[in-house]
Design goal:
By secondary structure, this protein is an alpha+beta fold. Helix content is about 50%, strand content about 20%. Helix 13 crosses helix 14. The longest helix is centred in the first third of the chain and has 68 residues. The chain starts with a helix and ends with a helix. Bound molecules: ligand C2E and magnesium ion (2 copies). One magnesium ion binds next to loops.
Length: about 750
């Protein structure tokens, strides 16, 4: 069961929707994130391309510019013969330095490398030969060879105390025989250097690489990093990568690539042999990516968390709804006890556990006594409240492992597992009876209720749940039969009784329709004269299969199954019809006594039913006597009043065997007492019983009631009853109960006999 509900839950529409939303959002977010990364890469590359182009063009222009300036200066120097007269050259050079503050110093050198003039240094100072210096010799030679401006390695010039970039140009003559090499030092740290106007935005950097593998210019550069940067060659692998990549550059675009932890755009400025590279640390791109993604990520996570929370809440709601449904399916809504289905499940488990542990289990059916009466008289709401209170009292008696279930109506099932023996079950039964001792309270009123319990034991009375339940049910029947408010353990003999009862029940259902019921009439006699003054109608049932069944047996069954309503109606109809016939034969004062059972009396329409019958058969009401037992009299006081209103005489049957509540006799409209057969039987031999019979007669006389002795079988009994002044009697001595035809025949015969005697 759990597995199916789990799998159903896993495929619930809510779960599918949730999965769809989460997966959809996740995919959407990943696509968005990738797209954003691409966009940021694109933007970064565009910015680097722009910076790279700007630096490349600027560099080109700077060197073009210097080439022009040096040409003009060189030509002037040659023209003025300043090469041989150094003092003529100095004002020209100083003037130029003033115009170009970035040009940190000027040098004039002969084509053999010998310096002839250095701005700012005395003419007398002995000057070095550039071809003898390793840092300058290569570029000096290159200057002589190319005939255009050449750029030397950036180096530190102690004379100027500055990092400079040497630029040189051979002047005069043709390229094979220049007259003069003019060189200037561009102070790369000077604010006047145009490069320094290009401030790379953010964390971008500009690097210009020389073809010999040294940095020409790096911007920005951390303080005091010049020596480390310019005096050492670039790592070979980096040099390779930069020069390699620039081969892939487009006409208008630099080559974009990543190198180590940088994103780079490089161009080869072929005219000057330089590689211009704009770079940005990848970490920087990642940082701006993170900044760009922060809000969308926060949104996404919020949405995801909200979805999960919403889903969890919905699932919890659904689960609690499901568990409520499951609970409802297995519990009785009124008492919240397990219902029949769950009880059967528990019983099976209890049997399993008990079998494994080699112990005993008990199954008990519990039924409230006369619950229907409470329901009918106090209403269904009170009935429901009573059941609820019963449920909690039952629970209070049981252990945690035991089960009490409501099977419907006022029927409860109790399962006691792993008990030691029958005594343990009996103990529980006693406890249950004990908790029912306390009255049940409803608002201001209270009511006492008892219960009957039928108990069957596993494994003695059955090994399967079905058999055990049947046995417990049979035991319950027995407890009810035993007068209720008690408990019975199942025994195999009960089985026969219950079987018989079930047979009676089902056969009785069709008895009237099949014409199996009929009435017989036992005459009632005046003891003194022997005159037949009336009769008692007694019902007879002959069933083809069961044979003759005594009313003492089947009336009980009919009462409990409700069939008494129909049977009682049949008896009244038949008795009235018979009385009408007897009167029609000329016995106008002859009376008819009819037995009415307690259940029948409670039927609200009994008075009107009797009234209808009397009217229909044109009978005076004083001739139809109603026989009720003492118990019925006590329990059905209200209905008796309505019967009396019809002026029907009322006889108390079997008087002396029941409650004999004398106050009731006084309070209720009783006209006759019938001394029970048991007092008459031994009236001659047992003085005690004779005393009781006499007491009843005296009571009747004192209360002005007629007294009828039942079960007279011998003349001796008649003699004793006459002595006691008992007025009327009935019994086999006078006559067995007779069919109507026989009764009429006997009545006629007696009339003839008496006429003859007179
Ligand atoms: P009851 O009303 O006390 O009826 C008298 C019973 O005693 C009858 O038994 C009758 O046959 C029996 N009886 C009469 N004289 C003698 C005698 O001298 N010796 C012995 N041993 N028995 C005698 P029955 O007909 O078997 O009825 C038994 C009980 O069944 C009745 O007791 C009455 O309570 C009930 N009953 C019978 N017919 C009806 C009926 O139509 N309606 C209802 N509600 N109950 C009925
Ligand atoms: Mg009777
Ligand atoms: Mg009787």
């Amino acid at each position: 069961m759990t597995r199916t509900s789990d799998s159903r839950r896993n495929h619930s529409p809510l779960k599918l929707l949730f999965d769809f939303i989460v997966v959809g959002t996740l995919v959407g977010f990943v696509l968005y994130a990738v797209n954003e990364w691409r966009a940021i890469e694109r933007d970064t590359e565009a910015e680097l391309q722009f910076l790279n182009r700007l630096v490349t063009q600027t560099t080109d222009e700077i060197f073009n510019n210097y080439q022009t300036v040096l040409h003009i200066l060189g030509d002037r120097l040659v023209e003025t013969g300043a090469v041989s007269h150094r003092e003529l050259a100095r004002p020209l050079i100083d003037g130029l330095v003033e115009l170009n503050p970035a040009l940190a110093g000027f040098i004039l050198a002969k084509p053999d490398g010998q310096l002839v003039l250095v701005s700012g240094i005395d003419c007398e100072t002995v000057l070095p030969n550039l071809l003898h210096e390793p840092k300058t010799s290569a570029s000096f030679l290159e200057t002589l060879e190319t005939g255009r401006l050449t750029v030397g390695r950036t180096y530190f010039l102690p004379l100027l105390d500055s990092w400079v970039m040497p630029i040189r140009l051979a002047i005069g003559g043709d390229t094979d025989a220049p007259e003069l090499v003019i060189a200037a030092e561009v102070d790369i740290t000077s604010p006047a250097t145009i490069w320094n106007d290009i401030a790379p935005p953010g964390k971008m950097e500009v690097r210009i690489l020389r073809p010999d593998g040294y940095w020409q210019f790096v911007e920005p550069l951390a303080e005091n990093m010049e020596a480390a940067t310019y005096d050492n060659p670039v790592e070979a692998s980096r040099f390779e990568r930069i020069t390699e990549q620039t081969r892939l550059q487009g006409d208008s675009q630099g080559a974009a690539y990543t190198m180590d932890e940088w994103f780079c755009v490089s161009t080869h400025l072929k005219r000057w042999g330089l590689y211009v590279t704009a770079i940005l640390p990848l970490a920087e791109i990642a940082a701006s990516y993170r900044a760009r993604m922060a809000i969308p990520t926060a949104f996404f996570l919020t949405f995801l968390v909200a979805s999960i929370v919403f889903y969890q809440l919905s699932m919890r709601q659904q689960r609690s709804y499901e568990s409520r449904l499951i609970r409802q399916a297995h519990h009785d809504p009124l008492t919240d006890l397990p219902n029949r289905a769950l009880a059967m499940d528990r019983l099976r488990v209890a049997i399993d556990v008990t079998r494994r542990e080699n112990r005993v289990a008990a199954v008990a059916f519990l039924d409230l006594d006369h619950f229907k009466r409470i329901n009918d008289s106090l209403g269904h709401l009170t009935g429901d409240a009573l059941l609820t209170q019963c449920a909690s009292r039952l629970k209070s008696v049981l252990r945690a492992g035991d089960t009490v279930a409501r099977l419907g109506g006022d029927e409860f099932l109790i399962v006691l597992s792993r008990i030691r023996n029958a005594a343990s079950a009996e103990n529980v039964a006693h406890k249950i009876h004990a908790v029912f001792q306390e009255p049940f309270v409803f608002g201001k009123g209270e009511v006492k209720v008892t219960c009957s319990i039928g108990i069957a034991l596993y494994p003695m009375d059955g090994e399967a749940p079905g058999g055990l339940l049947k046995a417990a049910d049979i035991a319950l029947y027995d407890a009810k039969d035993a007068g209720r408010n008690t408990h019975s353990f199942y025994s195999s003999e009960m089985n026969l009784a219950v079987h018989r009862r079930m047979e009676l029940e089902s056969a009785l259902r069709h008895a009237i329709a099949n014409g199996e019921l009929r009435l017989v009439f036992q005459p009632q006699v005046l003891l003194n004269s022997g005159e037949w003054t009336g009769c008692e109608a007694l019902v007879r049932w002959h069933n083809p299969r069961l044979g003759d069944v005594s009313p003492a047996e089947f009336i009980n069954v009919a009462e409990e199954t409700g069939q008494i309503e129909e049977i009682g109606g049949f008896v009244i109809d038949q008795a009235c019809a018979a009385l009408a016939e007897i009167r029609a034969t000329g016995f106008e004062e002859f009376s008819m006594a009819v037995n009415i059972s307690a259940v029948q009396l409670r039927l609200t329409d009994l008075p009107s039913q009797i009234h209808r019958c009397l009217t229909h058969n044109d009978l005076p009401s004083n001739l139809l006597e109603i026989e009720i037992t003492e118990k019925t009299m006590v329990e059905s006081a209200i209905q008796l009043d309505s019967l009396h209103a019809l002026r029907l005489p009322i006889a108390v049957d079997d008087f002396g065997t029941g409650f004999s509540s004398l106050s009731y006799l006084q309070r209720f409209p009783v006209s006759t007492l019938k001394i029970d057969r048991s007092f008459v039987r031994n009236i001659e031999s047992d003085p005690q019983e004779a005393v009781l019979a006499r007491a009843i007669v005296l009571l009747g006389q004192a209360m002005n009631l007629d007294v009828v002795a039942e079960g007279i079988e011998t003349p001796g009994q008649i003699a004793r009853l006459k002595e006691m002044n008992c007025r009327r009697g009935q019994g086999f001595h006078y006559s067995h109960p007779l069919a109507l035809g026989e009764l009429l025949a006997r009545l006629r015969q007696r009339r003839q006999d008496s006429r003859r005697a007179n």
